[in-house]
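## Example record

The block below lists the input lines for one assembly entry, exactly as stored, with component labels intact.
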Amino acid sequence: MSKVVSFGEIMLRLSPEGNLRFGQATSFGATYGGGEFNVAVSLANYGINAEFVTRLPDNDIGTCALREMRKMNVESKNIVFGGERLGIYFLETGAGTRGSNVVYDRAHSSMATIEKGTIDWENVLKDAAWFHWSGITAAISQSAAEACLEAVKVAHKLGLTISCDLNYRSKLWQYGKAPCEVMPEILQYCNVILGDIDTAYFMLGKAKVNPNYQDEKTLPVLYTALFDLLLNLKTVATTLRYSVSASHQRIGGILFDGKAIYQGAVKEVTPVIDRVGSGDAFMGGLIYGLLEYPNNSQRALNFAVAACCLKHTIAGDYNLATLKEVENMADGDSAGLVSR
Amino acid sequence: MSKVVSFGEIMLRLSPEGNLRFGQATSFGATYGGGEFNVAVSLANYGINAEFVTRLPDNDIGTCALREMRKMNVESKNIVFGGERLGIYFLETGAGTRGSNVVYDRAHSSMATIEKGTIDWENVLKDAAWFHWSGITAAISQSAAEACLEAVKVAHKLGLTISCDLNYRSKLWQYGKAPCEVMPEILQYCNVILGDIDTAYFMLGKAKVNPNYQDEKTLPVLYTALFDLLLNLKTVATTLRYSVSASHQRIGGILFDGKAIYQGAVKEVTPVIDRVGSGDAFMGGLIYGLLEYPNNSQRALNFAVAACCLKHTIAGDYNLATLKEVENMADGDSAGLVSR
Amino acid sequence: MSKVVSFGEIMLRLSPEGNLRFGQATSFGATYGGGEFNVAVSLANYGINAEFVTRLPDNDIGTCALREMRKMNVESKNIVFGGERLGIYFLETGAGTRGSNVVYDRAHSSMATIEKGTIDWENVLKDAAWFHWSGITAAISQSAAEACLEAVKVAHKLGLTISCDLNYRSKLWQYGKAPCEVMPEILQYCNVILGDIDTAYFMLGKAKVNPNYQDEKTLPVLYTALFDLLLNLKTVATTLRYSVSASHQRIGGILFDGKAIYQGAVKEVTPVIDRVGSGDAFMGGLIYGLLEYPNNSQRALNFAVAACCLKHTIAGDYNLATLKEVENMADGDSAGLVSR
Amino acid sequence: MSKVVSFGEIMLRLSPEGNLRFGQATSFGATYGGGEFNVAVSLANYGINAEFVTRLPDNDIGTCALREMRKMNVESKNIVFGGERLGIYFLETGAGTRGSNVVYDRAHSSMATIEKGTIDWENVLKDAAWFHWSGITAAISQSAAEACLEAVKVAHKLGLTISCDLNYRSKLWQYGKAPCEVMPEILQYCNVILGDIDTAYFMLGKAKVNPNYQDEKTLPVLYTALFDLLLNLKTVATTLRYSVSASHQRIGGILFDGKAIYQGAVKEVTPVIDRVGSGDAFMGGLIYGLLEYPNNSQRALNFAVAACCLKHTIAGDYNLATLKEVENMADGDSAGLVSR
Amino acid sequence: MSKVVSFGEIMLRLSPEGNLRFGQATSFGATYGGGEFNVAVSLANYGINAEFVTRLPDNDIGTCALREMRKMNVESKNIVFGGERLGIYFLETGAGTRGSNVVYDRAHSSMATIEKGTIDWENVLKDAAWFHWSGITAAISQSAAEACLEAVKVAHKLGLTISCDLNYRSKLWQYGKAPCEVMPEILQYCNVILGDIDTAYFMLGKAKVNPNYQDEKTLPVLYTALFDLLLNLKTVATTLRYSVSASHQRIGGILFDGKAIYQGAVKEVTPVIDRVGSGDAFMGGLIYGLLEYPNNSQRALNFAVAACCLKHTIAGDYNLATLKEVENMADGDSAGLVSR
Amino acid sequence: MSKVVSFGEIMLRLSPEGNLRFGQATSFGATYGGGEFNVAVSLANYGINAEFVTRLPDNDIGTCALREMRKMNVESKNIVFGGERLGIYFLETGAGTRGSNVVYDRAHSSMATIEKGTIDWENVLKDAAWFHWSGITAAISQSAAEACLEAVKVAHKLGLTISCDLNYRSKLWQYGKAPCEVMPEILQYCNVILGDIDTAYFMLGKAKVNPNYQDEKTLPVLYTALFDLLLNLKTVATTLRYSVSASHQRIGGILFDGKAIYQGAVKEVTPVIDRVGSGDAFMGGLIYGLLEYPNNSQRALNFAVAACCLKHTIAGDYNLATLKEVENMADGDSAGLVSR
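Predicted structure tokens for the full assembly:
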């Protein structure tokens, strides 16, 4: 089975119970997650041979993160230990008109202080078919961005498919460089990108265009501009999200494979149990879809959208929907019947 | 006050907190319930003299189930002890597009290994007015089905009203007989049946007809066919359920008394706190309605539909809505105002 | 900064977890709140110098309430200790068609047995700009009503703005007097009143008129009648609430300043996490709005409506929405996006 | 089977989790108990036909208490509804050198406002063999003391054995009478008393003597003085407790039957999970012992001491140790082996 | 690194919170464990390459058990899926004089219905150095005993060290055979046995001798008798346990290697957080000790005793003490200082 | 009332429930504490006017810490906002032979990056009588040590009593300087020091002497050597702690006032609920004792020892024992009786 290697950060996530605000909490639910790890878990759940590569502190909290990987059947043998601390983020879960609230405490983490040369990428990737990374790793520090570039170059050399979730977060990118100074060099090796058009344009130094995702005429033009800049690009996908409220989202998706546009039917997602990680669930579903249905972009997209929707019903960072559940929903079943 | 005796299984129900998936749970909420027990609790809540008859293991877990009965004011004096274990079912509560998930672990339970002759039905039923059972008991084992038939015969002989919730579950019926080999003999004594038309047809060996419950012309014909097969039948009712999602149901009901069709107004039920046991809440409401409003089938049906709706807002297997709450909702009040 | 003094009761609130019914609870969430205290917390959250005056029992439970005040940055230095007990109320949180249920256990509380002369109002109010009280205090006992009247007289003499939330609760007013025998004398000193028209009419001994809050023509007439009776009145506001279900409310508001009618846009509030205290959140928002935007009644009203809506998403009695969150929503943002 | 009727108060007990202090709690564990109810539960657990008589408020909290009785198999058919509120007590559980802390909030309870004539004692006691009450009921109000006297007179007339746990609490007895003005009249009908000698002397108006419970010579004299004052007295027992710390108690007991002194072996009780109600467990064990071993005072005492010890290991007000567990410990087994 | 394969059952363990009794629990803590699995976890924690072989039901509860194995870094690749259910046991945790209480619900489990031929032992054991099993597997069913014998024969043929924890439980062995009819044939291949002398004698059909473990003269004779019966035997060890109470144990150990007797110093273990699995912790420590210190039986024994002691301080079935913690305690450090 | 100002760090403390290990936790109890803050809380509890000065991040987690200060009635008006993050420490609570385990994550905190000049000490200390700091602040960073020195100089100039808890932690002091390069300059202004003799010697660059605290002859000599080095010193105290196990400590104390040695009676502390912060409780008790009993060093010491002992029974970082509880224990009462 083809192995997918994901590279990035896993954090401790601390969250008040239910919809309590930070100031009301006397305990924080403790889970572990992070964009690229979440993708690996999704793939492992679908039966893919998934590996996660990161740098962990050599303390009890790092060990907790490691056990979470093992529990979820994600290969961890190439993880490197070092650095001071596991990154943390605090999450307050909103409801209705009150949005969720994230407080990052991930600076100085073991992953943020990783450096080029820490990972033996030739060895790690030698039996892999796919390499996944995200814009977050490039955003947390100069050295992490360099480690990313190093990995992508090896992956490209070894002929792996390379995917990237652009994942732009304005609160990150604090180390003195703009995305457009860093990302183009790494993105040029990528074959699959998840992100909306304006984020991609911004990261590549192009002016924003405020695209209309319903307009199937202009979309190919806008996406094609990315193909012109990134010569290895084969697929671009965008998650479409309309937020009625923190508890009610409408989710769709769009995919362009260089030739045609594919639309995923928009689904009502209500109530939202936990929307954090739903983009990662889309990414995980997209990788699975492209691997499993290489000649059926519509099906691959439908699978990604269904995975994204189901993630909203599941607490924690990563998607625990099973392959069968995602397939059923990709087939159109969203009635939520009791299985007994 | 007329006594209603319900016969069936009470199980330990184990459920992850909130909407957690099984694999996320470090504890399971522990409650006790089961179709026929849930009916008895509903009736006790409405002020009916309700008794539950079952077989429990003589261990601490069986004692927990017994205490639950006592707590809910359900008479337990004729319960028999024996057998190996209390049946268990695991329930993962869904949300939105993700349905709830039940894992049964009820084989080899004390109730599944009950045998004809275990209960002294003449004594148990001598001062009762109504006997209730369900298709589940007939489904779990040959000997339980035989115990059911034995009970029904005595109840019939003593002139009790006999009701049955057909409750077809394809995962049960594993002991080598089809429903149509077992159910007709027991159903022939029944006066009141809850179930949809095709389930009844299937259990009686008739071909399915995929009825249109909006078509009030064909419905009497379809229901009447049941009266032709079951000579003691006086009332058939059907719960109408449309599942928008696991968190949003539309609930109605229909009743045929041999002469006329009655429709209960369809209600929006959202959010769904716990839909397990909502059919039992309908059954409990129906028995109460038929006892309390013997000449007002519409009111009886409205009461049953209201009980069913309210159950969806209550955690656990059985309905804890009070008589007054059900009556208010049967009267049309569903605004959910604060009572203070 | 102008100080606002609020006078009333703080209670221990005991509530089953989630949507459990009272009989299912093995523990009660313990929080502290009460209409007038909730107003003080709202104001402190918005940066106002807020003080709460009450009477607490001199025991560990009273100390818990005191710590809650301190935690929320509400000045407590003029609180008086004495009496037997902290008032309690039990709250069962409804869902969907099942409404929330309050059981009061506040009789004989330290606040209910407060007497005229207990508080040195001249001293308490000497550096304050605003005094707030509510109809609940007048309702719990004769002596508490007298203490209220005493405070209002001093506040009026010292030139403070005086506001009252009418807060009629039929279960209170058990001490032998009708509201119209007690309220007019206290209300005559008030400058700002929150309440619906018929409640105000009832408390002032006028016949109810069942007003149509959409009819902007008749409304000025109906409100003006209050100005004719209460000579110090400057502003009357009403919370508009339509209850789709316990989990879904539609919230608007209306304000009359003696000259013009202002309408706040109606908002969908779903799901409802906790609607208790949402009226107090409106009141707190209204005081803040009138203080902060003295010449912009529309903005003051919008702020109050937004505060009320956001409170529904927050557990506990008082509103923990921040100034920025309320302002954003008053500006029209209700998409509930993740802040990260 | 002989029926034992216990008369007194059942309260809601609110307790922070584990060893948290009141001010640290965001929830209170909610259980139900009270001295005389606890005795009834003990007896029901041992297979005795036990009934509890009290007065409950007709609200949801009263219903919770009623369900607790039913759950524990205590007969509740003669309970009377009325009054304002269920009594409450707050319990902070100590550890080591920090003692537990009780805050009473039981004034104005439905039981405190019971009056003579409320219970039809002739009917309640007509088929009973034993009546139990305690000094707490006489302490909470004049009218409750009168109701007690009324009950005791009927019990005496009908020939029941009457037992009393003296249970002196200085914080109660607030209604203007001293124990020695009230208790002698009620105690004169009693056959069995549990209490230490000085408490009994105090309640009977005698000077305290500070007895030495190791001195088996003077003890008969001191106990006999009680028999001289209370002509119906047959048995006096005293719980011996030495408190090493809140977590470590040494428990013994002593019994005088008018002729001889019996000593129960002192047991080490550590850790203490919950010592509240351990005196009630002694009382329940004593009644059972005297009923079951009428000619073996030593065995009756051993049973009571064992019950008291085991209660310390069980959370909540009442003793959940089984008959077999108490008997094993009375037989000398205290190794706490795993049963598997 | 030499691989150790352990074969047996993993169960779902359901336990009331803290020291609650079964009847007080509204939820059960859910963990996974079982004697032979616990041994594998201990070894994995010490850095040994540990594999667990069992049979799991192919349902969500079986998946939970599988994830637990993965989380603890126990190899699970040879696990077989099939059968009806995961075995369950209920555990009520005692305190002081009240012992813990186990209710087994493990009949009909997937492991109990395993059969000879289900596992391809040649393949599983081909790269292993050690095989571990226990008397529990031989006790649960005839077919499981046969599977055990099959495994042991292959292990013997391949030259693995074979260890057995005798683990006699009288409640098991219900399938019609006595231990002495089954165990001798399997034990004859064993090299290492953990158990007390009389259990070994009983399982081998010898009369009990009630040995004095302090008497170092007679002990070699008694142990040697086992070597005479079991020709492959090299090491016998016994856990010494004196139960002061459920919360206070004294733990030692003894080891005989065919030549000399070794005694482990007795340790005070108080408080006991969870004593279930402490014997398995001893077994895991013993295997590690024998592997790591092949020429130092005293050290091996000390390690086993220390592991057993530390397990008592850890909740759940298996030992989470780290290698360093066990070594420190084996070195004599038991002061429990804070590490900071 | 004289004001005491304490300066240092407040951290978020994250702790698994009960005695769970880090890897077993799915949530962390969240409390706030830190050595110098804990001292301030103790003093506020005893009725002292206590202020805490620190630097907090301007985010929601910093606000939580601020609310904790307010709740505990500690003045916070001079707190400064800035920096990246609130320091965190993870605490795993041991039991018996397993010690508690702390994982620090406090590097880069807002307090660690405080600089000289951040606080306007002249203003903060102008109306204070006492200034308290600890060796931890000097240990976390060069700039924090400089801020400490700055504060101490101002305090000395203004004539405040200055106290220091030496609090040596080898894991800190990572910024390139040894304690003896930093501490002497700050300590020279101190009047009261808490610490053992060898820690003081080490921080002052003297060789360790391994003192015998039972030897009252040599002790004055050893303590006097400190007075020779620190010319402002008036009182040195040492907490004596003997760790039987993590759950059982023996606590005493010793005080030297330049003239005489005072010994506090050693107390048994078992069970230990939470020993973190018990040294701070001693420090808080010592300051209170020296303020309240300026001429009674024995009483001051007894108060400190009693406070330390009681802290062990209280969860969280700081001491919640009341003044009355500490005084009772200082008077010799440690029986842990129920207060009711």
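Chain C has a mean pLDDT of 97. Residues 247 and 271 of chain C are 5 Å apart (CA to CA).
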